[in-house]
Amino acid sequence: MDIVGENSATGIKCHLKYIPYSYFTRDTQRRVKGVVMNADGQVKWVLNGTWDNKIEIAPVISTNGTKDSPIYKTGNYKTIWSRRLPPLDSDKYYSFTTLACQLNEWEEDVAPTDSRRRPDQRLMEEGKWDDSNSEKVRLEEAQRLRRREREAEAESAASEGRPYPPYEPVWFTKLKEEGNDTLFHVYKGNYWECKNKQDWSKCPSIF
């Protein structure tokens, strides 16, 4: 995995390697190792750790060996990420982390398209399972109807020789990475301004 810096960090790159699990190795399982390079490609930091426990980083003091097999002398390692252990009663909550348990907590004044406003989810949170299931079926039927309508509109536009604009996210725009076909989404702005004004006129009705 390559993590590439932008703006003030342009040119800086972190290259990570995830070591596959192996039943036969004596090495630490779920290992991650990597380096951070500056804009000139010089390795300035070394990372080491596991993806399910902690990641440590150390500055590179000197480099020996060959270009293909460098040997880095480093300073002291310091922990930059460590796993937050689940609550003691997590077994009562599907072994979710605290963050996962909080993701669907209700918040006032968010966009009407916010997933926390999904009526079937709200009903499920309240323990109304039958009502939640009925609401889920209704939402799915409405989604299918909107899709059929868009498909019909697209066919009509094609037969008339006019372009039919694809669906565009309200708060993000889709871009392509330089040098490859990887797509990513960039925040367009204005969400927080609309939230402060409670102006959600841009949002479609999806629930």
Which stretches are low in confidence, meaning pLDDT under 50 for 5 or more residues running?
A: none
Question: What's the shape?
Answer: extended
Cα end-to-end separation? 37 Å
Percent range of helical residues:
10-25%
Please tally the β strands and state the result. 9
Radius of gyration: 25 Å
Structural class: alpha+beta
Strand content: 25-35%
Name the helix and strand elements from N-terminus to C-terminus, one letter apiece. Answer: EEEEEEEHHHEEH
- What is the arithmetic mean of pLDDT? 91
Major sheet summary line: 7 strands, antiparallel
Helical region count?
4
List keywords for this structure.
single chain, 207 residues, alpha+beta, 7-stranded antiparallel β-sheet, two-stranded antiparallel ribbon, 9 strands, 24% helix, 27% strand
Mind sketching the topology for me?
Blueprint: E1 2-4, E2 13-18, E3 31-37, E4 43-50, E5 54-65, E6 70-74, E7 78-82, H1 98-102, H2 119-125, H3 129-159, E8 172-176, E9 183-187, H4 191-197
Antiparallel strand pairs: 1-2, 2-3, 3-4, 4-5, 5-6, 5-7, 8-9
Helix pairs in contact: 2-3
